[in-house]
Structure to design on (605 residues):
C-alpha cells in the first residue's frame, strides 16, 4: 500500500482466485461475494461449511474458500441437516436455486424449516432453470416465456409461482426470513446485512434462517443485464416483494 | 467374553451400532426394519449419538451424506422399497467417497410387495442399484450374531476404504430372536482429514463432490474407484463352509436361505448324499475363486444355488463355475422361505 492511500475495497480471502464463470450481469457472482465477505468479516472461515446445489451454482465450491459439500439435486437441506446435526457449533449454509429448493427439493426444504434446522438457506430465485438452458421454474412468473412454457406460464395448467419466503415464514421454528435483491447498490447493502443477520442468528442457535434473493438471469430471460434489472422492478418485485417476513424477538437477539 | 443377551436381529443391530461408536442415525419407518429405529430412538438419551427421523428415505440418505461427510460414524436402515429410494444417494456417496453404513432388511418385491422376508434385492445390492460404475461392500448375515458382527465390520470397512457398506439382511433375520454375544463398546476416534469440518489455516478447503465435469477428470475418478474396488476384492472376501471337504454336491446359499440349506446338508447326509454348503458372507465382493476351486475338483458333481428370489446369486455362481460343472437353482419368491426338505427333493430330482 502506497503512503497516503487507504484501502477501501479488496477481494475477500474467503473467495478463491478462480475466475468466476457466471454469465455477465448475473447476481450469483455478487451473492457469492457478499456471502464470503460476511464469512470473512465475522471471522468464521474455520467454522463454516457450505452445501452447493445442482443448478448454475453447482460449482460454488470452486469459488468459495470454505469447506463444502456438493449435494444431489434438491437435497441440500438434508445434507446441511446432516452436517449441522453432527457439528452444531459450525456455521452451515445451503446455497440453492429455485428448481433445487422449490421443485425437486420442496420436501427437504419444508421439513428442514419445520424442524427449525439451525442453518442458513441462501435461496437464489431467478424464476428459471438457468443451467439446463432456460426451462420453466416453480417460480417462473405468470405469462413468462421459457423454453418449456413457450407461450407463457399458464396458471390454469401449472399453477402460480411458489412464494417460498412467504411459505417458510409460517413455520414456528424458522427464526428469520427476508427477501432481498442486489439490483441497486442500496439493495446490495441490504442483502449483505440480511446475510450477516442470518449468520448471527444462526450463531445464537435461534432456528432456521432463510434469505431469498429475487435474482435475475439475463441469459435465460433472453435479456441484456440492464433489461433484466428493469424486468425485476416491473414484474418480479410486485409479485415477490422485498421485505422482512419474520425476524427474532429483540429479547432473543 | 462379551455380554450375552437374547435379542431380536433388528434390535441387536441397533445395540451393536451404539457399541461400535455410532454418531448419527437417520432413517424412515418401514416394515420389517422399524425396530432398529425404535431401539435407537429409545436409547438416544443414554448415549452420545444423534437420532433423527427423516421425512423420507431420500432425505435420510442425504443426511447420511452430510453427516458422514462431516466425519461422523453414520448408519441408516431400511427395507426394500426404501432402499430403492436411497440408491441415488448411495451412488453420490460412493463417488464422493463418504463412509456410511446401510442395512437393508429385505422384504419381498417388486413394488410394494410384501413385508415377509426375501432375498430379491441381491442384484440391486451387488451390481450397483444406482447409476454409474460403483459398488458397495455387501455383507450378508445369516444370524442375529452376524447382524452384530457385521455392524462392527461394516463401520470399519467403510472407514478403511471410504466407501458405503451395505448389510444385506432380510425380514426373518431382522425379526427373529437368538442368543447373541455383544462386543465391548469401542471409543470411536475418527481420523478423517478429508472431512468438511471447517477449513483451518493449516490446510486447503475440503470439498466433497461427485461432479467432475471434464471427461478426463471423470475417467480418472472412475479409475481411482475401480482401483479401490480391486483392493477390496483382494482383501475383503469372506465366506463360510459346512461339510464341503468331501462334498459331491455343493449348495451355495447366503443369508436366511443358508440356514435352511445347512439343515438340508444334514438331512441329505443322513440319506447318504454327500452334500456341503458354501456360504458367501460378502456377496460383493463375491468369492468367485474359492467356488472355482470346487468346480475344478473331480468329486464335485454339481452346484445348486438356494435363494429366496427368482435366481439372482446363481448368476454369480455360474460365473465362478465357468461352465465346468452344472449349476442349478431352486428358490421361492414373494416372502416364502423354502423348507429344508424341499431343497433335498430338488437335489434328488437333479440326481435322477
Amino acid at each position: 500500500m502506497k503512503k497516503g492511500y487507504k484501502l477501501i475495497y479488496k477481494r475477500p480471502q474467503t473467495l478463491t482466485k478462480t475466475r468466476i464463470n457466471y454469465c455477465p450481469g448475473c447476481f450469483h457472482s455478487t451473492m457469492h461475494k457478499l456471502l464470503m465477505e460476511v464469512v470473512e468479516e465475522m471471522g468464521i472461515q474455520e467454522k463454516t461449511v457450505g452445501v452447493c446445489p445442482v443448478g448454475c451454482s453447482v460449482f460454488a465450491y470452486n469459488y468459495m474458500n470454505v469447506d463444502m459439500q456438493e449435494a444431489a439435486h434438491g437435497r441440500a437441506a438434508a445434507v446441511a441437516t446432516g452436517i449441522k446435526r453432527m457439528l452444531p457449533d459450525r456455521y452451515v449454509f445451503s446455497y440453492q436455486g429455485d428448481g433445487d429448493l422449490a421443485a425437486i427439493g420442496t420436501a427437504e426444504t419444508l421439513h428442514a424449516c419445520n424442524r427449525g434446522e439451525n442453518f442458513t438457506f441462501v435461496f437464489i430465485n431467478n424464476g428459471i432453470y438457468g443451467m439446463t438452458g432456460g426451462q420453466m421454474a416453480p417460480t417462473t412468473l405468470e405469462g413468462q416465456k421459457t423454453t418449456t412454457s413457450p407461450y407463457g406460464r399458464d396458471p390454469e395448467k401449472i399453477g402460480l409461482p411458489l412464494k417460498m419466503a412467504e411459505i417458510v415464514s409460517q413455520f414456528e421454528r424458522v427464526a428469520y426470513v427476508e427477501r432481498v435483491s442486489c439490483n441497486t447498490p442500496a439493495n446490495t447493502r441490504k442483502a449483505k446485512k440480511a446475510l450477516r443477520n442470518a449468520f448471527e442468528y444462526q450463531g445464537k442457535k435461534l432456528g432456521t434462517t432463510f434469505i431469498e434473493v429475487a435474482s435475475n438471469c439475463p441469459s435465460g430471460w433472453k435479456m441484456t443485464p440492464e433489461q433484466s434489472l428493469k424486468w425485476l422492478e416491473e414484474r418480479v418485485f410486485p409479485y415477490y416483494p422485498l421485505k422482512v417476513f419474520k425476524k427474532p424477538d429483540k429479547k432473543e437477539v | 467374553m462379551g455380554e450375552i443377551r437374547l435379542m431380536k436381529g433388528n434390535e441387536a443391530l441397533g445395540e451393536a451400532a451404539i457399541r461400535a461408536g455410532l454418531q448419527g442415525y437417520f432413517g424412515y419407518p418401514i416394515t420389517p426394519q422399524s425396530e432398529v429405529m425404535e431401539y435407537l430412538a429409545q436409547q438416544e438419551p443414554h448415549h452420545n449419538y444423534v437420532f433423527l427421523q427423516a421425512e423420507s428415505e431420500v432425505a435420510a440418505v442425504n443426511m447420511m451424506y452430510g453427516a458422514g461427510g462431516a466425519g461422523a460414524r453414520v448408519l441408516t436402515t431400511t427395507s426394500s422399497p426404501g432402499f430403492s429410494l436411497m440408491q441415488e444417494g448411495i451412488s453420490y456417496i460412493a463417488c464422493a467417497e463418504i463412509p456410511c453404513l446401510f442395512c437393508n432388511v429385505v422384504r419381498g418385491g417388486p413394488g410394494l410387495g410384501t413385508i415377509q422376508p426375501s432375498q430379491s434385492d441381491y442384484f440391486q445390492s451387488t451390481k450397483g442399484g444406482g447409476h454409474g460404475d460403483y459398488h458397495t461392500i455387501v455383507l450378508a448375515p445369516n444370524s442375529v450374531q452376524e447382524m452384530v458382527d457385521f455392524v462392527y465390520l461394516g463401520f470399519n470397512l467403510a472407514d478403511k476404504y471410504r466407501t458405503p457398506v451395505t448389510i444385506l439382511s432380510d425380514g426373518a433375520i431382522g425379526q427373529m430372536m437368538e442368543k447373541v454375544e455383544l462386543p465391548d463398546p469401542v471409543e470411536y476416534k475418527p481420523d478423517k482429514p478429508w472431512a468438511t469440518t471447517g477449513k483451518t489455516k493449516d490446510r486447503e478447503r475440503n470439498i466433497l463432490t461427485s461432479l467432475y465435469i471434464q471427461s478426463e477428470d471423470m475417467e480418472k475418478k472412475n479409475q481411482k474407484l475401480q482401483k479401490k474396488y480391486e483392493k477390496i476384492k483382494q482383501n475383503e472376501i469372506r465366506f463360510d463352509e459346512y461339510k464341503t471337504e468331501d462334498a459331491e454336491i455343493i449348495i451355495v446359499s447366503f443369508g436366511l436361505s443358508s440356514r435352511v440349506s445347512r439343515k438340508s446338508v444334514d438331512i441329505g447326509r443322513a440319506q447318504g448324499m454327500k452334500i456341503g454348503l458354501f456360504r458367501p458372507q460378502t456377496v460383493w465382493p463375491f468369492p468367485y475363486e474359492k467356488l472355482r476351486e470346487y468346480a475344478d475338483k473331480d468329486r464335485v458333481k454339481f452346484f445348486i444355488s438356494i435363494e429366496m428370489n427368482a435366481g439372482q446369486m446363481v448368476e454369480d455362481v455360474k460365473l465362478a463355475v465357468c461352465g465346468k460343472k452344472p449349476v442349478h437353482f431352486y428358490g421361492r419368491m414373494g416372502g416364502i422361505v423354502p423348507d429344508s426338505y424341499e431343497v433335498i427333493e430338488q437335489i434328488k430330482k437333479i440326481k435322477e
Chain B touches chain A through 40 residues (CB under 8 Å).
